[in-house]
Amino acid sequence: MTEQKRFPFFDEAAAPAGAEGWESMYPYYLVPSQETREHENSLFWFADTMHWSRGCHPFDSIGAEAVYYGAGAFSTRIFTLPVSLGLDVRVVNGYVYIAPQGVTDPDEIQRRVATFQERAGHYYANWDELYGRWKEKMTGAIESLRSIEFAPLPELDPAEVVTEARGRSSSLALAENYHRLIDEFFAIWQYHFEFLNLGYGGYITFFQFCKQAFPLITDQTISRMVAGVDVLAFRPDDELRKLAVLAGDLGLTGALTREGATPEEVLADLGTSDRGRQWLEAFEQAKEPWFNYFAEYGFTHDQETWASDLSIPLQGIARYATMLAAGEDIARPVDRLRAERDEIIAEYRALLSEAEARQFDELVGLAVKVFPYIEEHNIFVEHWAHNIFWQKAWQLADVLLAAGFTEQRDDMFYLNRFELDEVLADVLQSWAIGVQPRGKARWQKEIQRRRGIVAALQAAPAAPAYGVPPAQVTDPFAVMNYGVTTERVADWLGTSDGGATVLTGGPGSLGVVEGKVRVLKSELDLPSLQAGEILVAPITAPSWAPAFAVAAGVVTDIGGMMCHAAIVCREYGLPAVVGTGFATTRLTTGQRVRIDGRAGTVTVLEDEAGAASGPPADGSAQAAAADATTTGAGR
């Protein structure tokens, strides 16, 4: 019997040079072990580079805990998804890997179906009311995070401890607030999954109905039946577009596009005129809350928001202002998307019997109802809540620095959350006794060791997967968000030799286009993107939307039909291929490629020097793109 093709096992993954001993940085249950080796080797693990695009610092691994605790609880214990449990999680060489847990026993599936229908049915029947309550819960949780304060330890407790006979040191608040910070973070990630898998489930149910009723229908056509929906996630980019329009109306495009000017210089220059001050007033109004938006996904302490790095939104505004000055339309094509959506729905509905049409109407209505949450929740959780969480974490880091325990402001993030709890106990008790913290020298030595390890981990790319692929990938989260399907895994295994000129991925957004590649490893590389280039990245964040205004197409390593890259590209009419697995390591900046967003392929046409490495293009990219976005026959 031929051995089943597989990816390496965890214990076959060598640490990058300089990163030996990385396992000691993370909680024991997040790293592979001999004790759990049999379990780990029986599973298929794929990299969650969507949320952690680089090796994570020890403290930042808290996200891997909170995310998959929440996902597991709601999938396995609350809504009981019939064929899927939670996603197991490990950190390997600094990167986060997850493994779907399936249910295969038919009797157990039927038991879970009954519970799922009852519980999920309650949410689907009361979606608008419950979603409104969800927003209230999230707003309350965000405000609770905001109320947490970490104050430097004083020389003496305040007099009120005596005059009000409080009977306890005010310093206890430091540890209490740290625990509140962690607990609120975990609670927020419980809220995150209250609706998410139901959103995916509603869409998947509609998707499966369409596949059965219309055997030749494409995934793209199904996704276009829920296009053109207004969601909060597009609001930050809409604010940039509005500011670009205002800049054009006020004759300020030149001031915003001045080459080489820093954000401070641009804003100071605008403040010298009445029109500039009018624009700055609108700019300030847009900042809260819409600039509380991470340039990536907000899962690490070192990411910038638009508010903390104004060069990010100003660059987006300048790009839009330049396009407007050239006579281009910068509006999102919502009307066209909705017209196409309605036409597609009508065409396919006409093919059904009366009973089937009623079921179709119900399912497409449910898909449209639940779809906004799939994108919208990110604003509340990954951006607004995470922004405050990291602000508070940095505030705590400043307390440790002021107490003399750490030597650099970011030292704290080289401790995991349990180690930090011990450090806070040391700092508080030493302060109370009147001695120096007892673990300072020990932890400074360890932090310096870990600095080198983290740097080595982040310098190495993540392996796309480990372990044995399942016969069928059934987890809705893996399929819809990450694009890890049975077919995609087979493609990854089949193209792992590195010599192919065609990469296969998921059809993220319709269109065929050719252009030169620009490989972006993170949001820090965004300024290098040039007009007309193909943006290639591990994954794109919703906040990258201004870059889509100049990119000709998008290719990602990871992502499915409902990942943010695919959704945003569809809403902006940009061709995209997602979930290729290897694009950032197989493609290099300067290569010329053709991406086909319908077929899900990326074909290398020329290398950096212009030598042909694939078949010639058959027709202009413009004509192909126009054909690919037609709503007539061939869907």
Automatic annotation (TrEMBL):
UniProt cross-references to Gene3D superfamilies, sorted A to Z: Phosphohistidine domain (3.50.30.10)
Annotated segments matching region Disordered: 608-635
Chain ranges of the PEP-utilising enzyme mobile domain: 530-600
InterPro entries: PEP-util_enz_mobile_dom, PEP_Utilizing_Enz, Phosphohistidine_dom_sf
Ranges of biased composition (kind: Low complexity): 610-635
PANTHER family linked: PHOSPHOENOLPYRUVATE SYNTHASE-RELATED, PPDK_N DOMAIN-CONTAINING PROTEIN
Protein name: PEP-utilizing enzyme
